[in-house]
Amino acid sequence: MSSRLATSLCGIPLKTPVLAASGTYAYGVELKDLVDLSAVGGIVVKGLSREPMDGNPPPRVWETQAGMINSIGLQNIGVRAFVAEKLPQLRTAGTAGVTIFANVFGYAIEDYLEVVRVLEDAEGVAAYELNVSCPNTKHGGIFFSSDPALLAEVIGAVRKIARRPLIVKLSPNVARIEPLAKAAEESGADALSLVNTFVALAIDPKTRKSRLGAGFGGLSGPAIKPIALRMVYEAARSVKIPVVGLGGISNGLDAAEFLIAGASAVEVGTANFWDPSAPVRIARELDEFLQQEGIDHVSKIIGTLKL
Ligand SMILES: Cc1cc2nc3c(=O)[nH]c(=O)nc-3n(C[C@H](O)[C@H](O)[C@H](O)COP(=O)(O)O)c2cc1C
């Protein structure tokens, strides 16, 4: 990959600023025969919880006109199995050298702390991405991501025990993103990532039921890109820490738009379902765009929106 794209995020060197988004790239190792993982800027693994989780009842995915709605329900093998089984495989031939970000979630602050404690003892994780788009079951189901005080509480608690950088992944399901971005920065986040999926519903008009077993799901893919861009712009201009932008990125120009809106790096999610090597292709297309524009390094377009 060209030197135009080599960058860093929270002090972590990245070959390219194009990462694979959580929940769309499994634990990375599963893709090793399909994709040259050494060319991927980084992989954010599927969300990890303190215990294994089965997720929601099927159907769990519905394709929409320009995206998809999922209600996977954060199914995962649990943080201990990830450390014991997946991380060692990520260090073997074919996957060695790929930068791994561990996505962490929970339903109480203690859950986040337990997952991070287990990861702290493990080798091969560059940073944590905290998925705060979960209800706090100890506080009547208020979402961590929708209340600045609750958000600050969980970040502050994790910050105290985490030695690695902390990227806080914000939910777009809020009226204003700025107070949440600021609360995350003030309570110790090293970076933000946004957006997660938009709460959505698909209806089968014949049965008059939801298309998804769980009822509601989360909308992702090209359909959400314009809203995600607006929110990344708003978040980036309200904080000093770096912002990782995502939501509907499917080609190099999409990635460039997020960088121009103020993101320092991007993640690719839904596009991986039709092109597993999307993070590599998108980085190449971004590089071609920079070359055509006569820009010698990707950092030069970050936050250059003329508005
Ligand atoms: C099937 C699926 C599973 C996902 N699982 C997670 C997850 O475990 N943790 C998380 O933080 N985000 C998860 N996400 C959200 C994505 O990482 C991303 O934020 C969102 O899909 C928007 O990006 P995109 O439009 O490029 O897909 C998931 C998304 C999809 C489609």
Write the layout of secondary structure elements.
Blueprint: E1 7-9, E2 12-14, E3 18-20, E4 42-44, E5 61-64, E6 67-70, H1 79-90, E7 100-104, H2 109-120, E8 127-131, E9 135-136, E10 142-143, H3 148-161, E11 166-169, H4 178-186, E12 191-194, E13 198-200, E14 203-204, E15 209-210, E16 217-220, H5 225-238, E17 243-245, H6 252-261, E18 265-268, H7 278-292
Parallel strand pairs: 3-4, 3-18, 4-7, 7-8, 8-11, 11-12, 12-17, 17-18
Antiparallel strand pairs: 1-2, 5-6, 6-16, 9-10, 13-16, 14-15
The structure holds flavin mononucleotide.
User: What small molecules does the structure contain?
Assistant: flavin mononucleotide
| Proportion of helical residues | 25-40%
CATH architecture: Alpha-Beta Barrel
Mean pLDDT over the residues: 96
Largest sheet: 8 strands, parallel, barrel
What portion of the residues fall into strands of 2 or more residues? 15-25%
Give Rg in angstroms.
18 Å
Q: Give the uncertain stretches in residue-range form.
A: none
Q: Helices and strands: which structural class? A: alpha/beta
Helix count equals 7
Number of strands: 18
Total tally of structural domains: 1
Topology pattern, helix = H, strand = E: EEEEEEHEHEEEHEHEEEEEHEHEH
Quote the distance from N terminus to C terminus. Answer: 32 Å
Q: Kindly report the spatial arrangement of strands forming the biggest sheet.
A: 3-4-7-8-11-12-17-18
Query: For this structure, what is the CATH homologous superfamily?
Result: Aldolase class I
- CATH class membership: Alpha Beta
The CATH topology comes to TIM Barrel
The global form is globular
